[in-house]
Amino acid sequence: MVQKTGYDKLKFLRQLIKNLPSQDQMNVQAYIITGDDAHQSEYIQEQDKRREYISGFKGSAGTAVITLNHALLWTDGRYFAQAKLELDPLDAWILMKEGIPETPTIEDWLIDNIPTNALIGTDPNFISHSNWLRIENCLRDAGLILFPVEKNLVDIVWGSERPTSLKNNIVPHEIIYSGINSGYKVNACFDKMKEKKVSILVITALDEIAYLLNLRGSDIPYNPVFIAYAILFLNRVHLFIEEDKLSLNAKKQMKEEKVDFVCHPYNSVQQFLREIIHTCKIKIWLSHTANHALHILCSRATKYVSITPISLMKVVKNRIEIEGMKLAHVWDAIALVKYFSWLEANVTEHNKCSKVTITEISGAEQLEKFRKEEKKYVGPSFPTISAVGRHGAIIHYQPSSYTDIAINCQEIYLCDAGAHFVNGTTDITRTLHFGQPSVYERECFTRVLKGQLQLSMSKFPSMIKGNYLDTLARKFLWDVGLDYLHGTGHGVGAYLNVHEYPTMISWKPYPDDPGLQNGMFLSNEPGYYEDGKFGIRLENIELVINTTTKYNQLDRKFLTFETVTLVPIQNKMIEISMLTNEEIEFLNSYHKRCYKILFPYFQESQNITALQWLEKETQPIIKIKS
Questions:
Q1: Is the Cβ–Cβ distance between 125 and 293 less than 8 Å?
Q2: Element (H or E) spanning 594, and its range?
Q3: CB-based burial of residue 115 (10 Å sphere; 0-12 exposed, 13-18 middle, 19+ buried)?
Q4: For residue 308, how far is the Cα from the chain centroid?
Q5: Rounded to whole angstroms, how far apart are CA atoms 285 and 298?
Q6: What is the value of pTM for the model shown?
Q7: Is the dihedral of CA 616, 617, 620, 624 positive or negative?
Q8: Where are the extended beta strands (E) located within 205-358?
Q9: pLDDT per residue as tens digits for the range 354-391
């Protein structure tokens, strides 16, 4: 079978757009292709990568718009450089850089370029309700109608080449790791439903279903979840899933944890809701992040549209989850110390006389080998970013056989890697230099470090939204006219999605952010990137904990962060003169804790190199008085 070229795909898709039937004498003039699946997952199955198939762009965030004359891709600053490399064919696409003041939104571009009294088509199964409403409201005022196209046009273009769905087993997440049984969680949801006077709660987010039922799967790359819908109705959990995927142990645990459940075929969820709505007058709870097709279906019922109670439950970890997350970061730190010490020894040797060449890919593979030495390791929580020099400026760079280059002593090396263990999830970034960094590189690194330290040391009122803390991490870059085009922090799941919403620390407001609370885990990851030269990012995972303050005027609880990541910051990259005494004291204390916790794990003879690296990188920093 001859695969279609990028030109072929666009030509075929445009013909399908032309052939769509008119509505009220209006024709479809543009077709929107999101990067979402039906559950708005960050990572998606191969068969759901419609935007990637039509455009070639593999980033996790982006939307394509196809008209009869144009093909455009909107994506944010994490992916500008990547999109230029991947759009296929590049000359047929226009890259729309989100976040740049001169870049119009999708809605504004359509309004300016599509004649009035036209339809803008898209598949409502693969766009959230909130995004649908936002686009629809903007277009309506300009005489354009957002129109649900029943049959997905990309699937027609894809044809027999489209991959089939996975049939992976679903397994129990045991109480020794979850800390709370699923029956308790389900009953808590029913209590919230009674409070809101709703009869049905529809759950579409895959991590929410996995958390609620204490189950884990492997249908989605890098996220231990499974493809399903769940509907809570009449004190029962209706699980829409291919039942043969549920292992006997998974069913047994749900029964033991007193979950009254019944399984239905995955594709029957819309029919199930349709029948209930037809026979009963009910109120349905749907998240605004659920796909718009479900909202269309439920429009005949009374809807309560709000974030689900499960989304807020899972972001505040219980005692068992907190202990498991901390232990996972110890195990991950062991692997990373081994990796960075191995890199330093071998990259240095290579530049002297060794015949060994370590590349971005072989380096990432070696890190994976070190992680696999831990018995409770499950797999990576996202694709490892192993980036040398200019590749580090591509914020979500993934090395390939076409781009792979050697890790060397002349350029900065950025490694962003995360892991799933059965008791927790990790995410860490370290930026290192195995030779002599330039004065400018050290300055940029230190400004990033100062932002990270200031955020780590901050105290803030309980329930304040993470958006308010973002400036703390950027100040020292802003002081000299530098910045980074991504958020500063995201929530982290407990052996769940590494990017856990709705808790965020970002320049953008997140309306669903419930506010910071004791027991939440978030990343702290400022960075700086120079296109074509280098990238710098430092990322730790922080646990939100209670703290005390000198005064307490409003009798309000205050919080701070406890860093659970335990991998040293490379000393040679730091311009010590730029650090305050408070920052030096905090960094020294952090390194002392890293050494104390990790030291016992490196006592065997084969770990002597790792121990020496750990000792070197955790030496106290001393500021020389001028």
A1: yes
A2: helix 581-598
A3: exposed
A4: 19
A5: 10
A6: 0.93
A7: positive
A8: 215-216, 229-233, 236-240, 261-264, 283-286, 302-305
A9: 557 999 999 999 999 999 999 999 999 999 999 999 99
